[in-house]
Write a structure and sequence with these properties.
heterodimer, A: alpha/beta, N-terminal domain of TfIIb, Rossmann fold, seven-stranded mixed β-sheet, 24 helices, 28 strands, B: eight-stranded mixed β-sheet, four-stranded antiparallel β-sheet, globular
């Protein structure tokens, strides 16, 4: 038996673990004691990280569509067909009729190559990935206020905080290792404030639980900051020396009195004041947030309000402070870093900046398109309109994870050519013209970048099943067939190129990563990496305050309930992997809608019975779970289950600043099911 | 089988000895994987015998996380079954606590109608125990009566007495190795035996000072007194305690593949709700608190009733992996204080 140290494939915590290999097969997993985040611990998904690897459903051979059927084909045939079709579409309709969706589950090297494939080989900036649906508002909001959209501090830094505000994050279920660190911080004396309309476990364990109405985040965040300023708890030196725009902010905040905030959010003035004093008085205070903050039609404003809060209290650039967006996938940070976004190359170098473009043109030896491309959801719209004709999707399942499933289906069906690379058949591979079977995390080399900007090694423990291949090879082979020079012999060579063209990864090489990895920015080979951002200055010089206002959201009397979506502890994202892990599937085998006891009684339904949940466009039938975890008037459905896909109900209500859809607030009505 | 006359193995002779044994056996030993000790197949690399006991117990070589019980192949409508013979192994550096876990498992899987997959691996494995002369921080084997002194159950027993190992055999297989490889060994001197005693007394003292022993009665009382609802509130549901425990042996069986495939036995956990939930949806241990209480009762009441041995060997691993920093030992202590 061999034990190979690698990085977990699920959430952004980026835990180190060992894969146990016997006779060339992965047979087990165990936590890594020396890994700085795992510290010998894992969540249940991590303990079972190896379990889906040999599931019989694994895709083992390339497939090509022949009429209604998918037929087994050779790699040569599949790659050549894909290159040919992409070329044809480009010649007929131009490069911008093509798009690539890369994968937050892929390695940095794979994301970089697919990004290069889109820009240099196909000639389009239409490249995006699932970050659009999670932290686009963080990239947009923190980008303009602080100059960087990533976590400012490492996870461990939370141990040193005196107050921690967790908002829009079901941390114990979605980022268990971060939750464990927060709770350890609390047991060392930090005051834990949790703002969440749901009574999650971390909300239950909090010292102060604020229960705002859905869509009132800007109001209560502004209200807290308003109280902090009124009580002279703001950090005036920090504001003076390191920020700009404070007076305009102060003016905009004054109307968010506790009474106004109560009217909007339902949070009592007493609770708001307790939270404000706890956060304001703490020598070191940190904010942790996730999808509950970003997945709104005003997601960027929510992020900016939190950024204002930490800037005005001087909680940046020191241990135990900072603003910390928790990233959902193990490499969604890395996919963003690698430039799998329509507007930037790797390291957030803007495609519109002529200097950056020239630099990449020189490095890649080809001309590059200048205008930003389409975002993920815009690609679907453009596909439906016939503007986009060919898409390559890497390890992503938009049919389950994007809003408005029916529209995604129409969009993907109207394409002339769809290629999908995945480890399992999904609702999306079912629509593909070409399917590439690729290697899972246990079967490839590379790097993932965790939520705390920690670049870490992924190590190949076993061979992929059947004819499956690592996706970096697929990207490389397509590049070659599209006429590019792509002689990479290993992911390590790809990383060398990444380091060459990406300033924040300049000092990163496999030899240096070891167990603990390196935090970017790491500009050169002697640089130790940067655990805490913005210590002395911001990348944009001074940080900026952006006043943001609460917007009253429409009510819909015909659809009186608010549906909010999310994940559960036992499943991950669209369930492609976790629903094939029998212990996880057994814990939560069926979709259920969480509903408050009072609502259940009014509807005349009991636990285990079925209800029909209807939005203006669609409906689904689902079993109910009666629980105090959700407030009256709000229901919760996890989006893991294709039997009752929550995103059938969600709509295309995009945040104008970041183009993220509002997954967290959909008007629905409920009735008892007749069946 | 009790200890027979002792030999001495110079530190420098250990690797040559292993090299010879590795010609016929798979030698499993603590080695460094990216700097951390783990039990893995030894291929000549540096041994991690001085490091702490690896987090993952070598019990996994008898009860793997996932094992193929047999393969089934359909041919003309008939099934044939193929079983892999167990590997001949030697596990070097198992600690007394893990050996105690195997003794408990032997009672559960090995008596009367023996569990064939377990028993066959057990019979084809030679166990070389390393006495714990520098116990880890969270260890409390002395309080559970499972270490640091071990008297039986091993094939060979090593104690690091400074310049080399004192080697004692505890079985015919152990004796056979000592005879067949006699050129690596010397006669042990009386001071080696004395040094062994001194080191183990020290270790025992250290452990009991850190974690004074509780009697089984006290533990039972503590289980009754513990506020399990509060433990449930804090537990982050990783299942790690039960998945890492060397005595835990819950499993589930499933078939993978149709028409040909494999019957698998996979590690399972009674802490998970699906483990006790019935097909109707009813769950006799519906809350996590009840399941955790059951887990303790199993260790301190049910397994002792069945085997005459405690179901906890004091290795401290459940505390090391606990996401909620729930320290088993402190829970018990606090409950009766």
């Amino acid at each position: 038996m061999e034990k190979i140290h690698t990085t977990c494939v699920y959430c952004g915590c980026g835990c180190g673990l060992y894969l146990h290999v016997e006779d060339g097969q992965v047979v087990g997993a165990s936590p890594s004691p020396a890994h700085p985040v795992a510290r010998g611990r894992l969540c249940l998904k991590g303990w079972l990280a190896h379990d889906f690897v040999y599931h019989p459903d694994r895709l083992k051979a390339p497939l090509i569509r022949r009429g209604e059927r998918m037929v087994r084909a050779s790699w040569e045939e599949t790659l050549s067909l894909t290159a040919k079709r992409l070329k044809e579409i480009k010649e007929e309709s131009g490069a911008d009729a093509l798009a690539i969706l890369t994968s937050a589950k892929g390695t940095n090297e794979e994301n970089y190559l697919l990004m290069k494939l889109a820009r240099a080989a196909l000639g389009t900036n239409n490249v995006d990935h699932v970050a659009r649906l999670c932290h686009a508002p963080s990239v947009a909001g923190l980008g303009i206020s602080l100059g960087s959209g990533a976590m400012t501090n490492p996870i461990r830094s939370l141990l040193r905080a005196d107050a921690i505000l967790v908002t829009g994050s079901n941390t114990t279920e979605q980022h268990p290792l971060v939750a464990a660190t927060i709770l350890e911080g609390q047991s060392r004396g930090a005051i834990l404030i949790v703002a969440d309309p749901r009574k999650t476990q971390i909300a239950d364990l909090a010292d102060i639980h604020l229960e705002p109405r859905l869509g009132s985040d800007v109001a209560w965040t502004n209200g807290i900051l308003n109280l902090i300023i009124e009580r002279d708890l703001a950090d005036e030196d920090f504001i003076k020396e390191r920020t700009e725009g404070f007076s305009a902010l102060q003016e905009s905040l004054s109307k968010y009195t506790p009474e106004v905030v109560e009217r909007i959010s339902g949070i009592s003035p007493e609770d708001l004041e307790r939270a404000a004093i706890a956060f304001g008085e703490a020598p070191r205070a940190a904010v942790v947030y996730a999808m509950g903050t970003t997945q709104h039609s005003n997601g960027t404003d929510n992020v900016l309000a939190l950024a204002n809060l930490i800037l005005a209290t001087g909680n940046v650039g020191r241990e135990g402070t900072g603003i910390n967006p928790l990233r959902g996938h193990q490499n969604v940070q890395g996919a963003c870093d690698m430039g799998a976004l329509p507007s930037v190359y790797s390291g957030y170098q803007k495609v519109e900046d002529p200097l950056a473009r020239e630099k990449m043109e020189r490095a890649w030896g080809t001309d590059l398109p200048s205008g930003p491309g389409l975002t993920a959801v815009e690609m679907m719209e453009a596909a439906e309109e016939g503007l986009i004709k060919g898409i390559y999707i890497s390890g992503e399942n938009p049919m389950m994870s994007y809003p408005d499933r029916e529209q995604v289906k129409r969009a993907l069906e109207s394409l002339e050519f769809l290629a999908v690379a995945d480890i399992f058949p999904t609702e999306t591979t079912a629509l593909a013209d070409v399917v590439f079977p690729v290697a899972s995390f246990a079967e490839k080399d590379g790097t993932f970048t965790s939520t705390e900007r920690r670049v870490q090694r992924v190590r190949r423990a076993a061979s992929p099943p059947g004819e499956a291949r690592s996706e970096w090879r697929v990207a490389k082979d397509l590049m070659k067939r599209l006429g590019m020079d792509a002689g990479y012999s290993s992911p390590e060579e790809v990383m060398a190129e990444i380091a060459m063209v990406t300033p924040s990864y300049g000092g990163i090489s496999y030899q240096r990563l070891g167990i603990s990895g390196l935090h970017w920015p790491c500009p050169d080979t002697s640089h130790p990496g940067t655990e805490i951002l913005h210590r002395e200055f911001f990348p944009i010089g001074r940080a900026r305050f952006f006043p943001v206002e609460h917007q009253d959201l429409e009510e819909d009397p015909e659809y009186p309930f608010l549906l909010t979506t999310g994940r559960s502890l036992f499943h991950f994202h669209t369930g492609t992997m976790t629903r094939r892990v029998h212990l996880l599937d057994r814990e939560l085998p069926r979709p259920k809608v969480d509903i408050n006891p009072e609502d259940a009684e009014a509807l005349g339904v009991r636990r285990g019975q079925k209800v029909v949940v209807e939005s203006r466009e669609h409906r689904l039938e689902i079993e109910i779970e009666v629980t105090e975890q959700v407030p009256k008037g709000t229901i919760f459905i996890p989006f893991h289950f294709q039997e009752a896909p929550a995103n059938l109900l969600t709509v295309h209500n995009l945040d104008p600043k970041s183009k993220i859809p509002d997954f967290k607030r959909t008007h629905v009505r409920i009735r008892r099911s007749d069946s | 089988m009790t200890t027979t006359s002792a030999l001495f193995l110079d530190h420098e002779n250990l690797v040559p000895l292993l090299e010879e044994l590795a010609k016929t056996l798979e030698v499993v030993a603590p080695v460094y994987a990216e700097g951390e000790p783990v039990f893995a197949t030894w291929k000549g690399e540096a041994l991690a015998l001085d490091a702490d006991n690896p987090l993952n117990s070598p019990v996994e070589f008898f009860l793997p996380q996932k094992e193929v019980l047999f393969k089934y192949v359909q041919y003309s409508g008939r099934y044939t079954f193929q079983e892999e013979p167990p590997k001949s192994r030697l596990i070097l550096g198992m600690r007394p606590c893990d050996l105690q876990a195997i003794k408990v498992l032997d009672e559960i899987f090995g008596t009367e109608l023996p569990d064939h997959p377990y028993a066959s691996k057990r019979m084809s494995t030679i166990i070389v125990v390393l006495n714990c002369t520098s116990p880890g921080e969270g260890c409390f084997c002395a309080s559970m009566g499972s270490g640091p002194v071990v008297e039986e159950g091993f094939d060979l027993l090593l104690t690091d007495v400074g310049p080399g190992y004192l080697v004692e055999s505890g079985s015919p297989a152990g004796m056979f190795i000592l005879r067949a490889q006699s050129h690596h060994f010397e006669e042990a001197l009386p001071e080696h035996l004395k040094e062994k005693e001194r080191l183990l007394d020290l270790a025992e003292e250290e452990i009991t000072k850190r974690r004074p022993a509780l009697t089984p009665e006290q533990i039972r009382e503590a289980i009754d007194e513990t506020d399990w609802e509060e433990v449930e509130r804090r537990c982050l549901r990783c299942g790690g305690c039960s998945l890492i425990c060397p005595v835990c042996h819950c499993f589930s069986v499933m078939d993978r593949g149709v028409p040909d495939g494999e019957r698998l036995r996979c590690r399972d956990s009674c802490v998970l709700s699906g483990f006790s939930r019935m097909t109707s949806g009813a769950n006799p241990r519906a809350s996590l608190g009840e399941r955790l209480r059951h887990w303790y009762l199993d260790k301190f009441v049910y397994i002792p009733e069945k085997t005459g041995m405690l179901g906890c060997v004091g290795c401290g691993r459940c505390s090391r992996v606990c996401l909620s920093e729930i320290d088993r030992w402190s829970i018990l202590r606090e409950a009766i204080e």
